[in-house]
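Re-running Cytochrome P460 domain-containing protein to confirm reproducibility after the cluster update. Everything else is unchanged from the original entry.
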Amino acid sequence: MYFAKACKSIALLLSFIFHSVSYADSVASYPEGWEDWPVVKESLTLPADTVLPPDTSLFIQEAVRSYSWINDGQGSPLTIRVNPEKLEQYKTHGPYTDGPTVVAVSEVQGIIWVTEHFSGLPMYGSYNRQGEDIASTHPTLEPEFCARCHDTYKDICINGTCTEPVLSPYE
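Result of re-run:
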């Protein structure tokens, strides 16, 4: 009897916890026409079994750890495109004018990470190729996760756009 009540209490508590977890929607908007933006960089989301060199930056280590789930752990080419109206701003990493700034596209998985600026501040979003918000489908796609990482590595992610491609340890 006691065991049954305890199990029921635990189930009720777990139900409350899991229903209380809220995933954040994208804050940055989906930029129509991003496919025509110029490619400024190509990189990779590395496979889950990647062994990084010992001197790999913490930023790259975090990126590999965070996105090793992409394409079932196999990694994906990553294409960086910049809004043509912001190419000059991108070259100096800002400051940026308002509106969509950069997209990073996981070519295999079809994830489109968006960085947009508003009043000089970066905002983030995650979409699929159809423009549907997918930020709630994985914790590393949520705007809060993006903001936390970009804020942590401000020496690399200047004004919300990052400068160190994942390929650099292999060049």
